[in-house]
Amino acid sequence: MKDYHREVIHGSTFGVEKAYSGRNFHFLEERDEGILSERILSLSRSNKLRSLFELYASMEKSGLRPNLHACNSLISCLVRNGLLDDALRVFERMKKEEMASGHTYSLILKAIANERGCISALEMFEELEREEKLSHSCDIILYNTMITICGKMKHWQKVEQLWRRLKKDGCKETRVTYNLLVSAFVQCDQTELALDAAFEMVQSGWELKEDILKGIISCCAKDGKWILVLKFFNQMLNAGLKPNSVTYNAVINCLGKAGEVDLAFKVYDHLKSSGQKDDSYTWNALLTALYRVKRYGDALQLFERIRKDYAAEMSPHLYNMALRSCQKLGRWERALQLLWQMERLVMAPSTTSYNFAIGAGERARKPEIALQVYQHMMHRKCMPDTFTYASLIRACIAGSLWSKAEEILNCVGPNASLYNLVIQAFCSQGKIISAKRLYMKMRSHGLHPDGKTRALMLQHLPEDSLKRSVSSRFLASGETAPYQIPDFHRQMGLYRSQLQP
Q1: What torsion, rounded to 10 degrees, do the Cα atoms 253, 254, 258, 263 define?
Q2: DSSP reduced 3-state for 436
Q3: 481 phi and psi, to 5 degrees?
Q4: HSE-up of 137 (CA within 13 Å, CB side)?
């Protein structure tokens, strides 16, 4: 038996149980249940708890029963005054006498959810379902209550189940029901279900209000459904509703990710004309949109306009977007200026920021610039990552600084990705001896080459070296290859035949 049942039996501080004492029980001259029920209604509304308890207990002792409306009002009064245990005691009696209605269940479940949490309310509802107590009592109010509770728990599967069940029971959804359904599905990022509920709401003759439209736009934007986003956004505007900055940003971001840059800027123009304020999220969405369609120069121009107009609101994310565009264009001078501006504004460039500047030097085939940025990065105690070293090595290889590339490789701990990068670059430039040496060193560290590195080494290493390398790979991994090792020469011939053009 659940906790709330035990509390009904044992836990009352001031309530029905005390009303049974001799001094609280009264002989009722009035025997009309309707009149007595009206008195309970009046006492409940005025929160006269002692008189209310005494009258209810006296009726119960006399074998009289308040009507459903009076009992529901009594429960509501008890819940309102924080006497949940007493409310549950009344509820148990109503349930025993098969008086409880959908409204009764709704009152109790709401109270349980508020006092003991949504999980307790859901457990109670599920137990009532198993006891088949709800078969004739479920109305749309009860369904709305449970949809609200499950929505707060983000239990969208249960919300969907309740939706299907209310249809099966013949309950007609109200505007409140649809609002609760859409809200619950939006909060759980269930776009398809949210759209189903919204479309059904429209088919039932209800208009989508502002909050519902904003929620659906946000949900569709997360899923990248830009056509639907634009449709609901236009519906808001046509209805005379005013989207807030969050909605504008969601639409702009979604259109930008879809590559619809012109539409994104049209929405941005509408934002400006509507009186809403653009912010760093808006600018980041626009810069990202331009970057995605490879309009790197336009992204840098937009960044400059933003920086001049809103210098105090600049963020590291905006600078990083500009640095990414510099990297793609090889604009290393501009990248260095942006780094300097970030440091001057006490923004503390991150490893990612420095990586973009190093990448700009790599793109421009300026290894000395990339190395200078790296040295400055180390001086500021900003720790490099694998992407930093990979970009440095590529820059050195592009500038034919082979020894420097190998020096950087040796400074870093054993890293398979970097070894693969250097070996493949050496092979592409015909530096086979150096590539072989690095390959052997890589294997000595227990690192595994990727497919391209293995294919290159198959072309250039002697067969006995390859045999030892392959054998060591099996031994290191604990694998056995009885059919491969004895037939090694035939397998090497097969590999060579596959590699030949």
Answers
A1: -80
A2: helix
A3: -140, 65
A4: 21
Distance (Å) of CA 115 to CA 111, 124, 180, 219, 442: 6, 13, 21, 31, 63
Contact 265, 236 (CB under 8 A): no
C-alpha 459/C-alpha 496 separation (Å) is: 7
Q: How far is CA 260 from the centre of its chain?
A: 24
- CA gap 238, 242 in Å, rounded: 10
What tens digit of pLDDT does each residue of 447-484 get? 999 999 999 888 876 644 544 554 455 444 444 443 33
Write out the H or E segment, with its range, that includes residue 356. helix 351-363
Instruction: Name the token pair of 71.
Output: 């009992």
Residue 138 in tokens: 């479920």
Quick one: three-class SS letters along 115-135? Answer: HHCHHHHHHHHHHHHHCCCCC
Give the model confidence (pLDDT) of 232-274 as tens digits: 999 999 989 999 999 999 999 999 999 999 999 999 999 999 9
d(CA 332, CA 115): 61
> Whole-angstrom distance between the N-terminal and C-terminal Cα of the chain?
76
Model confidence at 143, pLDDT cuts 50, 70, 90, reads confident
Q: Is the pTM above the cut of 0.90?
A: no
The closest of 16, 33, 149 to 78, measured between CA atoms, is 16
CA distance 441 to 445: 6
Cα distances (angstroms) measured from residue 240 to each of 218, 233, 243, 274, 435: 19, 11, 10, 12, 68
Q: Are 366 and 373 in contact (CB under 8 A)?
A: no
Contact, 250 vs 213, CB < 8 A? no
Helix (H, G, I), strand (E, B) or coil at 483: coil
Name the H helices within 188-314.
191-203, 210-222, 226-238, 245-257, 261-274, 280-292, 296-309
Tell me which residue of 381, 304, 379, 320 sits closest to 355, measured CA to CA: 320
The answer to whether 483 and 469 are in contact (CB under 8 A) is no
DSSP 380: T
Angle subtended by helix axes 416-428 and 432-444, to nearest 10: 160
CA 349 to centroid of chain Cα atoms:
27
Contact 265, 233 (CB under 8 A): no
- The single-letter DSSP state of residue 413 is P
> Residue 180: CB partners within 8 Å, gap ≥ 6?
144, 147, 148, 151
CB distance 152 to 121 below 8 Å = no
Question: 154, 131 in Cβ contact below 8 A?
Answer: no
What dihedral angle (degrees, nearest 10) is formed by the CA atoms of 95, 101, 103, 105?
30
